[in-house]
Amino acid sequence: MKTMANEDRIAQEKQREEAERQRIEEAERQQRKEEKRQQEHLEREKRIAEEIEQENKSLEERLTKTSEKLRVKSHLRGRTNSQECSHIMQYTVEDDAEEIDIHEADQPHVEGPRDTLQLRRGCDTTPQVPEALGICTCRSGTRVAELTWPIVGKS
């Protein structure tokens, strides 16, 4: 009887050890599975962040180039609407000073079909003209000239 009780106790001990071993192996498998899932998630987030950063960089470069081309600074010497509104528009451009033509808007107080814009490098003393519109306005707010894009250098 004693041997049988010993054998039962030994068998139960072996079953407990086997169950404990299986439980530990299952826990390790689950941990490896979770680590792999987290690693894949981190790699996916990293890849998305790199794509977003690259797209932002590209958009920033395009914006910089566009704003360099369209940065309009203007000296406006406005007179009454019945007189000619003389003005000089200055562009901040990479090239040195050059002249370009603009087409005058159909305004009765503007004399002549065309006017010449003077391009000068980096004039910071003048007010900003609405860049997106490319429109020169005199002090009274009347539209004087509309720029023709793209601006082509005049020889």
Describe the protein's architecture and organization.
The protein has a 4-stranded antiparallel sheet, with no helix packed on it. A two-stranded antiparallel sheet has the order 1-2. The radius of gyration is 38 Å and the shape is rod-shaped. The C terminus is likely disordered. The chain is built from 1 helix and 6 strands, in the order H-E-E-E-E-E-E. The chain has 2 domains: 70 residues; 76 residues, no CATH class. It is of the alpha+beta class and 155 residues long. It starts with a helix and ends in a 9-residue tail after the last strand. Strand 5 and strand 6 form a beta hairpin.
Radius of gyration: 38 Å
Give the percentage of residues in beta strands. Answer: 15-25%
Strand line-up in the sheet with most strands: 4-3-6-5
Proportion in helices: 40-55%
Question: Order of helices and strands, N to C?
Answer: HEEEEEE
- Total domains: 2
Task: Kindly report how far apart the N and C termini lie.
Answer: 118 Å
Structural class: alpha+beta
What is the general shape? Answer: rod-shaped
Largest sheet: 4 strands, antiparallel
Low-pLDDT windows of residues: 72-155
Q: How many E strands?
A: 6
Question: Residue-averaged pLDDT, rounded?
Answer: 61
Work out the helix count. Answer: 1
